[in-house]
Specification:
The chain has 286 residues and is mainly α. The chain folds into two domains: 10-42 and 218-280, no CATH class; 71-202, Helix Hairpins, CATH 1.10.287. It has helices at 44-68, 71-127, 133-215, 219-231, 254-262; strands at 237-241, 244-245, 269-270, 277-280. Strands 2-1-4-3 form a four-stranded mixed β-sheet. Helix 1 runs antiparallel to helix 3 and helix 2 runs antiparallel to helix 3 (133-215). The chain binds zinc ion. Zinc ion binds next to loops. Pfam families: CT398_CC, Zn_ribbon_9. Residues 245-278 form the C4-type zinc ribbon domain.
Length: 286
């Protein structure tokens, strides 16, 4: 092997064909890839076990994804914002209601004053004490003017009462709506929490199982797997299935297949394309 890989001991190149079939430099199937990482060996059963660890890790990832994307999260957020919005409207309606109540009291007071003054004028008119024609005319004119004023003020009172009624009805309606939305929000939160608890329980069980299976995998193999898993989007070990790497889905070419075929059963083989640990099984198509 010397010429193609100077400085790399043969023992570090697991996928090379046995030295009984030497290759020339131009025939060499893989110029560099295997020299990157030191050779790792692991019993075939341990490599299969690594696939179990991988499957459990995938389940944990899926559970985390399910936890983060529960529809109840978005539902609860939407309800919360809806409740907040209606609460603001309710506060505004109640403010309008109390403002108009004050306005009404004030306007009614004005009506009372005008009415009292008109009554006094009327009394004076009927008492016969005012005899001067000019004074009488002035008194009658004031009574007429007060009557118009009272009319206007009563119209204002009616308008205020109408606005107050509208605000009151609106506040009542909004209070019902807020209560309804709050109940719905509480129900959604309860549903979300129940789903989260269920996912957490399942994750706990999977984590325990994962710890148990991983404990049986040799430490160096597990370490390599963890490193690759981090680099390769959560998949560090893949099955070689019908000549395909199940990590990157690519089919191994004939040279790569020959390398895998030639590798010792306990050699830890890597995918030429994605660098993941490639685990051989009876269905590898070798
Ligand atoms: Zn691959």
């Amino acid at each position: 092997m010397g010429p193609a890989h100077p400085g790399v001991p043969p023992g570090h190149r697991p996928l090379d064909p046995p030295s009984a079939v030497p290759l020339t430099a131009s025939q060499s199937p893989c110029p560099v890839s295997h020299s990157r990482s030191p050779q790792l060996n692991a019993a075939p059963a341990d490599q299969i076990r690594l696939l179990d660890v991988q499957a459990l890790d995938v389940r944990l990832t899926q559970l985390a994804h399910r936890r983060d994307t529960l529809p109840e999260h978005a539902e609860a957020r939407a309800l919360e914002s809806d409740v907040a919005q209606r609460r603001d409207l309710l506060v505004a309606a109640r403010t309008e209601e109390s403002d108009t109540a004050r306005e009404q009291a004030k306007a009614e007071q004005d009506v009372d004053q005008v009415r009292q003054r008109a009554a006094r004028d009327q009394q004076r008119l009927e008492s016969g004490l005012v005899t001067n024609p000019k004074d009488l005319e002035s008194l009658q004119s004031e009574i007429a003017s007060l009557a118009r004023r009272q009319d206007d003020l009563e119209t204002i009172v009616l308008d205020i009462m109408e606005r107050q009624e509208t605000a009151g009805a609106r506040a009542k309606e909004l209070a019902v709506k807020v209560e309804e939305l709050e109940a719905k929000a509480a129900e959604t939160a309860a549903r979300r929490d129940a789903a989260l608890a269920e996912i957490e329980a399942e994750s706990g069980a999977v984590r325990a199982e994962r710890a148990e299976v991983a404990a049986a995998v040799p430490a160096d193999l597990l370490k390599l797997y963890e490193k690759l898993r981090e680099q390769q989007g959560g998949i560090g070990a893949a099955r070689l299935y019908q000549r395909h790497c199940e990590g990157c889905r690519l089919e191994l070419n004939i040279t790569e297949l020959n390398e895998v075929r030639a590798a010792a059963p306990d050699a830890v083989v890597r995918c030429e394309n994605c660098r993941r640990i490639l685990v051989r099984t009876p269905k590898s198509g070798l």
